[in-house]
Amino acid sequence: MAADADAYLGLWRYCAEVDLVGEVTAEMRPTSEPLEWLLYDGRKALQQTIRTDFLWVRPLDTPKFLAARRYVAEDQLTLEVDDPLGMAGGRYSLEGGPQGATCQPSERSADLHLGISALSALSLGGVHPGVLAMAGLIDELTPGSLDRAARLFVWPVTPWCSTFF
Predict the structure, then answer these.
(1) CA-CA-CA-CA torsion for 32, 160, 44, 131, nearest 10 degrees?
(2) Is residue 51 in a domain?
(3) Exposed site from 36, 124, 154, 157, fewest CB < 10 Å?
(4) Do residues 130 and 112 make contact, with C-beta atoms less than 8 angstroms apart?
(5) Are residues 69 and 40 in the same domain?
(6) Does one domain contain both 37 and 73?
(7) Are residues 88 and 145 in the same domain?
(8) 26 & 105 share domain
């Protein structure tokens, strides 16, 4: 763990330059780890044996869940959410931005149709809505709404958890 980029580089430099070290193992690292870009040949030097982010999210109250976070850009989307458990589904209008958000049940036409698992993944900010759409998990009902969702949800830092919980 490092407080800034210089500390991050210093910690990895120390691990790699200690005398007689032939191998360094790093477990539970973020999927967006910049380590491979610090190495002369990162593809050759790094071997990924497992990939996980140790994060699980399952909204129970969609309006409160979506209103509780901040968003990268100012925008509005209406989401039709399917929940097979009947706990968090419905149609919701989200208005969000860097300063906060509101989310209310809505009668507006939906811009996106998605299941609760896709909403969970989007809420963490680490997956592009277009990727979920290609996987068949999001339907774009209003042209351009996937791009708008990306501007809202995709966060500049990939989410990850460094500990078991």
Answers:
(1) -60
(2) no
(3) 157
(4) no
(5) no
(6) no
(7) yes
(8) no
CA–CA dist 124, 116 (Å, integer):
13
- Identify the residue whose tokens are 């989200």: 94
The answer to whether 53 touches 165, Cβ cutoff 8 Å, is no
Asked if the structure places residue 94 within a domain, the reply is yes
What pLDDT shows up at residue 120?
94
Domain count, the chain: 2
Domain that holds residue 111: 62-153
For the question of whether the overall pTM of this predicted structure is more than 0.90, the answer is no
Collect all residues with Cβ–Cβ distance below 8 Å to 109 and sequence separation of at least 6.
78, 141, 142
Q: Which pLDDT belongs to residue 82?
A: 97
pLDDT tens digits along 111-125: 999 999 999 999 999
Dist. CA 1–CA 91, nearest whole Å: 40
Per-residue pLDDT at 25: 81
**125 in the Ramachandran plot: left (φ > 0), alpha (ψ -120 to 50) or beta?**
left
Write out the two tokens for 162.
Answer: 């460094």
Look at residue 91 and tell me if it is in a domain: yes
Mean pLDDT of 23-44: 78
Residue 37: count of CB within 10 angstroms of its CB = 7
Whether 104 is in a domain gets the answer yes
